[in-house]
Amino acid sequence: MQHSSPVVETSSGAVRGLRDRFGDLYRAIPYARAPHGARRFAPPAPHPGWSGVRNATQPSPTAPQPVRAFGRLDMTPYFGPGWVPGDEYLTVDIRTPAADGEQRPVMVFVHGGGFVTGSNRAALYDGKAFARDGVVLVTVNYRVGIPGFLDLPGAPPNRGLLDVLAALRWVRDTISSFGGDPGNVTVFGQSAGATITGALLATPEAGGLFRRAIIQSGTGTGAFTPEQAQRVTETAAKALGVRATAEPFAALPDERFLGILPELAGLDLRTATARDPLLGLSPFGLVLPVQPADALTEGPAAEVSVLIGSNTEEGNLYLVPQGKLESSTEADVLALASAGYAEPAAAVAACRAARPGAPPGELRSALLGEALFGAGSTRMARAHSRISGRRTHVYSFAQRSTALDGRLGAAHTVELPYVFDLADEPWLHGDSGLLGPDAAPAGLAEAMHGAWIAFARDGEPGWAAYDPQQPVVKVFGG
Predict the structure, then answer these.
(1) What tens digit of pLDDT does each residue of 40-93 get?
(2) Which of 30, 234, 384, 460 has the fewest CB atoms within 10 Å of its CB?
(3) Domain tally for the chain?
(4) CA dist list (Å): 257 to 60, 61, 148, 237, 254
(5) Is the pLDDT of residue 1 over 80?
């Protein structure tokens, strides 16, 4: 129900939003110039601004991206509408209790999608519960795929990360106009967005842009080495029939980039010094000489409070919807261990010991989840706790989804409806819905969303800090 149309003045121009019972919503506000043509491979540039009042009531175009399917599982609440063409997609959506003079905590969300998909238009990222609870929520679009993350000579690396940095600078300079406190910003992300958030902790330019960070199912050890990135770049250039530099890439339309993605999937990225940190899930990601978890002293990490965790059955998302959980064999388990672990046999033995009698699919899922998210999150938590002085908090999400005949479990992405306090929404339920046919357990969304809000307010989510000698982990659900 629309009550009125609030207008806010920003340094770029005025914007008109929508007002409802949760507060005010402003959509598709540009934080950088449209990444059109050659600008797709340039650093984000300041937006030139506009005259008059900009309509901020309609959603933004989205970054060019392929369609992602997960069998019978309906992942549209997570991926959103896919590619909605339009140049001006380096934008933010803002949900605020009111655009007044108050100084409220600000939370800036960075979406996931394997560095190739996703947008702030996904239904799961509706911020009304945050506004209801006194927080200004900002959701960010950034470049993905080839424009966002392909490492190209003549273009800055990690352009999607540079976009998030530009959005955070925009928040610092502008959010007070929307009722937010620029001195109390929490950046949080999930999956690829969590990995980007972790990398910000090791990025010198991120200093002073946020006070807290939440890393949901990401990793501090997920970056590709320059050598691995070069392999992806050479393959992409060959598939496109151009030289592997920014100039010829900038002359090509986005459709061409999407068209070659199948040729980049399944590349062998193992080198003499590194395994594929994303285990073939994406040929794109951050490209760094040192993993973020090992470079925290380079960035603002020591001054930032961190909340970090993962789900107990992360790997199920990549096996259950595809029908691979039941069909997994011992050979599959060993192949995965060989790809993801320095000592495969020891990893399988430890996994077996922790899960006596577990079938191969369950072992495969556990090894996958630990290699992709668990190990890198633990390394990040330990590294951060060492330099931050009791400002690291760790959680584990264990609430099993009953989707896909009760088998999806506490898979990757299943915590999001609880964090955003949307777990009762009908579009998340039913056998193919992310949470399955059963009702969400009473109180879990309130507890988890409440912990996120409390952490954003004062850095204390409600349980003891993590210390490698006393690794306190708060378990949600299960």
Answers:
(1) 999 999 999 999 999 999 999 999 999 999 999 999 999 999 999 999 999 999
(2) 234
(3) 1
(4) 21, 18, 11, 10, 5
(5) no
* Annotated catalytic residue within 12, 60, 176, 191: 191
What mean pLDDT is predicted for residues 216-239? Answer: 98
pTM of the complete model: 0.98
Q: What angle do CA 185, 189, 195 make, to 5 degrees?
A: 115
Task: State the Cα torsion 24-127-78-428 to the nearest 10°.
Answer: -110
2 falls within a domain: no
457 phi and psi angles, rounded to 5 deg: -70, -50
Rounded (10°) angle between helices 344-354 and 330-340: 120
CA dihedral sign of residues 372, 378, 383, 385: positive
Q: Is residue 205 part of a domain?
A: yes
| Catalytic site includes residue 343 | no
- Residue 357 counted as domain residue: no
Instruction: Catalytic residue, from 60, 313, 314, 401: name it.
Output: 314
Domain assignment of residue 343, yes or no: no
Instruction: Check if 47 is active-site.
Output: no
Our answer to whether residue 305 is catalytic in this structure is: no
Distance between CA atoms of 309 and 463, rounded to whole angstroms? 14
For 378-411, letters b (16+ CB in 10 Å) and e give: bbbbbbbbeebeebbbbbbbbbbbbbbeebbbbb
**Tokens encoding 389:** 């002085």
- What are the tens digits of pLDDT across the range 184-219? 999 999 999 999 999 999 999 999 999 999 999 999
Question: Of 384, 412, 429, 449, which residue is the catalytic one?
Answer: 412
| d(C-alpha 377, C-alpha 218), whole Å | 7
Instruction: Give the CATH number of the domain where residue 195 resides.
Output: 3.40.50.1820
pLDDT at 3: 55
pLDDT over 90, % of the chain: 97
**pLDDT higher than threshold 60 for residue 437:** yes
Q: Average pLDDT in the 304-321 region?
A: 98
Report whether pLDDT(385) > 80: yes
Query: 392: domain range?
Result: 7-323+369-476
* Overall average pLDDT of the 307-319 stretch: 98
CB within 8 Å of 357: residues ≥ 6 apart: none
Q: Which residues contact 98 (CB under 8 A, 6 or more apart)?
A: 23, 24, 179
